[in-house]
Design a protein that fits this description.
Blueprint: H1 2-18, H2 21-51, H3 55-67
Helix pairs in contact: 1-2, 2-3
Length: 68
């Protein structure tokens, strides 16, 4: 995921200078991929947190996930 973020950042910088439509499309595709990965990771972490037996731990985990 970090590689995608770096690539998106670099392509965004390049797009700001060139205004190349192809680079814009690439940035948008990368952002969509990053958002999808983020959602999957969040769901996975929430499933792990649900399996922990204490409610307090679950609440703390939720707070950690949503404040990042």
């Amino acid at each position: 995921m970090s590689d995608l973020v770096i690539e998106s950042f670099e392509t965004s910088k390049s797009y700001l200078n060139s205004r190349d439509e192809e680079e814009f499309d690439i940035v948008m595709q990368l952002e969509e991929m990053i958002n999808d990965l983020d959602k999957q990771l969040t769901r996975y972490l929430l499933e792990i947190a649900k399996k922990v037996s204490t409610t307090d731990y679950f609440v703390k985990s939720m707070q950690l996930v949503w404040t990042q």
